[in-house]
Amino acid sequence: MKKLAITLLLAGFIGAVHAEIKATTALDGFISKMAKQHAFDKAELQTLFQSVETQDSIIKAMNRPAEGMPWFKYRKIFMRDTRINGGVKFWQENQATLKAVQEKYGVPAEIIVAIIGVETLYGERTGGYRVIDALATLGFSYPKRSQFFLSELEHFLILCREEKVNPLEPVGSYAGAMGMPQFMPSSYRHYAADFEEDGQRDIWKNPADTIASVANYFSKHHWKAGEAVAYPVKAEGTAYKKALTKGLKPDTTPEQLTKLNIKLPVLKAKEPLKLLSFEQESGADLWVGLTNFYVITRYNHSSLYALAVFQVSEAIRDAYTRIESK
Question: Average pLDDT in the 222-250 region?
Answer without folding.
Answer: 96
